[in-house]
Amino acid sequence: MNKDLTRRLITSAATKPFVILTGNTGTGKTRLAKYLGEWLGGRGRCFVQPVGADWTDNRNVVGYYNSLLNQYESTPILDFILKAHDDRERPYFLILDEMNLSHVEYYFADFLSAMESGREIPLHERPDAVSAGSVDDENGRYIPRSIGVPPNLFVVGTVNVDETTSMFSPKVLDRANVIEFVLTSSEFSSFIDGVDKENGPNGELGDVEPAVRKGEEFLNLSRVARGVDADGRPNLPPLPTNDGASFRKALTSVFRIMERRDTQFGYRTGAEALRYARVDRCLSGRDWDWKTSFDDQMVQKVLPKLHGGKDELLDLLVALGSFFATGDSKEAEEVLDKNSDSSSYRDWEKNDAPVFEKSKNKAAELLRELDRNRFASFL
Fold this sequence. Notes:
Radius of gyration: 22 Å
Strand content: 5-15%
Oligomer: single chain
Number of strands: 13
């Protein structure tokens, strides 16, 4: 299992409870999300829900009131949310598989808004709670008029990008960390070597014991990161003085570069990038390096928003790639001043010791796509 992806997924979820995993089909996105959900939460607290192409409103997420039967038609997702609501001391993981088979805004807008604002999602207009018609209603449950997103619920969406899927809007991307799965030749070779072994490729995951202690520690870290600690403990400690200053300087440099082409990000992205670095430091301990956290946030929060034609993106991507490779913001801004084509400024692509490796590689990949198709998009 890729340790870097695992670290980024856990850190991203602890920082904010909505993560998007993207990549080619068959690269293990759902498998990793399910494994970590069961490892952190335990059996019964991880639920995988495939998204349908016919999901055109939020009824597929939170159900609806059936006035003819005088009952609420629940959904597996709502059942799972209510279960998390009643068990707030342990984390619950909802995995939306192939999340972009339908437009996310059609079925998930209310949920995203509630997650961001803390407001409740209205379920019905009856004066009291109503009985539930559900796939699992033997307990005679009742559905309240509205429900908030419980702070112990974490949502992971998996995304396959092809001609059958829908694009994500900036509203959705701005509220998530986007982690891309890229299968390397060494990982593929390791997989193939294990295919004929008794336990299958890379070994079976086997039974995952309920990770109660891990789950509680993870949930407490997430609560502190989001400022909702039930015990009123202080927020995450600030970054070390020098590292924090370096992180903020690099973030401001990227903002200035993007501002020159009217693609700058907002306050939310900046604040969440810093919060991610604090969480990553808590999880990584002595191994933490601010450059790694910054690199993560560039490929998970900033670069996923980029898409457009050659005229819009060419010199911006060359400038960003230059900064990611060298860390020199003045040199990067000179690219924008000269407004030249990419061939004059691609020496950084050959840099085998870049300052921010993942971001440099992604900028180079987008530039190659731009050269081929005159259009490029992270997703």
